[in-house]
Amino acid sequence: MSALGLAALAPAADVLLGGFVAAAVRVATPLLLAAIGETITERAGVINLGLEGMMLAGALAATMGASAVGPWTGVALAIVAGMVLAAAFAAVTIGARADQIIAGTALTLGAVGLTGTIYRQAFGTGGAGLALPTLQPLAIPGLARIPVLGPALFEQPAPTYIALAALPLAWWVLFRTRAGLAIRATGEGAVNARAAGLRTGLVRTVATIVGGGFAGFAGATLVLAQVGTFAERMTAGRGYVAIAIVVLGRWHPAGVVVAALLFGAATALQYLFQSLGLAVPYQLFLMLPYVLTLLALAGAVGRVRAPADLGKG
Amino acid sequence: MDVRTPVGALALGLLALAGGLQLAGYDAVSALAALWQGAAGSWYALTSATLVRAVPLIVIGLGIALAFRGGALNIGAEGQFYAGAIAATWVGLHVANRPAVVAVSSLLLAATLAGTAWVLIPVWLKLRFGVLEVISTLLLNFVAESLVSLMVQGPLQESQHIYPQSDPIAEAARLPLVPGTRLHAGLALALIGAAGLWYVFARTLWGFRLRAVGAGARAAEISGRIDARRMGAVALLLSGALAGLAGGIEVSGVSYALFQNLSPGYGFTAIAVALLARLHPAGVVATGVLFGALEAGAGAMQRDAGVPAVAVYVVEAVVILVVLLAEAASRRRTTTRAFA
């Protein structure tokens, strides 16, 4: 290859790497948001398989709010939608002490039906289209000008920064406050926590509703910062992936961010390889994030333990 | 719980659907009429729509009942179904010159083995590394869906290489149909499976041990000297085998080919079917037919009344939640009485 050719390649590699990192962070953001919420919920002993449905409800609420008023109204509505569904989930599983796995599955099923019907009714068969006002990337002054990684990491839409700010906050609440102690005590042994005077039902309900709010926000992020419109079943399993990320992240905010970024990077690889024009079937790259998550789980689990009372009524 | 609870739950679910549709500006009466017509309005609708959809739900649902009874949460039936469908298609394309009995049984055997092999990964991950099967079976669903996509655009693509689907399987590999309908012999297999599973649960030592593990693994190990890990693993493998078989039956009896979205989420709906049946084989048949009817009616509702087919999931969700709540309430009543 001539020197000229090499020189032409150098900036291309920069662009590719920057694009890869940016895509990884973009894909990871909604997963991270949902996983932060689910970490809090699971630490209180509740496993919420309705997360997928809450993300979906958030996605539709965001679409409706954004098309009626603006993107931030959409975000607010999405958080409310997630919290309302989570409150219903809490009423069934904590109030009536019904099985969490079944209730979560049912809730997701219902959310698929509700969002599909409401969406069709609100926007007709044509759909919301791509004219939705979305959340544009915000460049952080100074940091965004770092070569290669600057634009990738510091020119993201606002939800990415909010997710990154929520991480230490979630850690602080869980491990440095009385509320966090109450959450963890409830998740590790509700009977003992009750004996010590904690209102465990209330703790679990609040933790579940907070998790639902995060899931709704995650759905809004998917619509307003990634896809730009709503589609039936658009979450496509991301809620379940977020639950896997919580396990992979060992129920700890620091682990969760690593796991979410790993999944995002594995997903972003397909864009990278596509732009390199490699003749590998794209489906292999679609599988990669899930296979890597499985491998990571095999390597990570065993040295860590789930909250002892997880899933118990 | 007697049958009144699910029947009442179904009534509530349909009422919720009607109310919601009326509020949303649809004509609820004509929507429900279309739902009924599409599900049970004629002999053809009953056999060719409702029962055809019920077969995979029953077969997968039996497997899920088996796994859940043994305390193994298999959420990956969708993936195991697809693994079975891929293997079935491959065999179905290669048995043109065989007698029908040989062709069909080798197709179904291949599907069953593929479903088992697919769930072998979560079983191994669980036994070797302690990975929760809820997560691993779930993740493998996504891998299986991509694998189907890869197959129908690669090795199993139809001979023109235009459409993302396989060639139709050999005539010899197709399940016989009930004359005048699209209902295939898979229904008989489903019913035999249900009877067999009932026998295993109710009359065999193995079935008793399985239920003991599901009710309390630690207690079963200590007082019954049962290897709970092994029981859970076997239950998972058998549930994968049944989901794979369902994929084979679908290819051999309905689609005759492999394509993406072959399953409209059978693997997930079947979880609801099994749970609603309280993991009882006869109940799985009943709820399988019920959910088959709802999904068959949903299609008609979309065609004839303009109501999105997904609306019917609201009915399914309400049914499950109401039964769940009724069950929890009756459990609370018994507990209170016991303490009184």
- Helix/strand-derived class of chain A? mainly alpha
Mean pLDDT of chain A: 88
Oligomer: heterodimer
| N→C terminal distance of chain B | 22 Å
Order of helices and strands of chain B: HHHHHHHHHHHHH
Query: What distance separates the N and C termini of chain A?
Result: 66 Å
The fraction of residues assigned to DSSP E strands of chain A is under 5%
Strand content of chain B: under 5%
Please state the second-level CATH architecture of chain B. Orthogonal Bundle
N-to-C SSE series of chain A?
HHHHEHEHHHHHHH
Find the structural class of chain B using helix and strand composition. Answer: mainly alpha
User: Outline of chain B, from the CA principal axes?
Assistant: globular
Low-confidence stretches of chain A: 1-7
Number of helices of chain B: 13
Shape of chain A: globular
Helix content percent band of chain A: over 70%
Please provide the count of β strands of chain A.
2
Largest sheet of chain A: 2 strands, antiparallel
Write down how many β-strands of chain B occur, each being a DSSP E stretch of 2 or more residues. 0
Strand order of the largest sheet of chain A: 1-2
> Which CATH class of chain B applies here?
Mainly Alpha
In summary, what is this structure?
The complex is a heterodimer of chains A (313) and B (340). Chain A is an all-alpha fold and 313 residues long.
Task: Note the main attributes of this structure.
heterodimer; A: 313 residues; mainly alpha; two-stranded antiparallel ribbon; 74% helix; disordered N terminus; B: 340 residues; ABC transporter involved in vitamin B12 uptake, BtuC; 13 helices; 75% helix; globular
Folded structure, characterized:
- The complex is a heterodimer of chains A (313) and B (340).
- Chain A has 313 residues and is mainly α.
- Chain A has a domain at 28-232.
- In chain A, 74% of the residues lie in helices and 2% in strands.
- Chain A is built from twelve helices and two strands.
- Chain A has helices spanning 3-43, 51-68, 71-95, 100-123, 149-154, 158-176, 178-188, 190-195, 200-227, 238-248, 253-276, 282-300, and strands at residues 137-139, 155-157.
- Chain A has a two-stranded antiparallel sheet.
- In chain A, helix 1 packs across helix 6 (158-176) and helix 11 packs antiparallel against helix 12.
- The longest helix of chain A has 41 residues, at 3-43.
- Chain A is globular, with a radius of gyration of 20 Å.
- Residues 1-7 of chain A have low confidence and may be disordered.
- With 340 residues, chain B is an all-alpha fold.
- Chain B has a single domain (4-331), classed as ABC transporter involved in vitamin B12 uptake, BtuC, CATH 1.10.3470.
- Chain B is 75% helix and 0% strand.
- Chains A and B meet through helix 4, helix 10 and helix 12 of A and helix 5, helix 6, helix 11 and helix 13 of B.
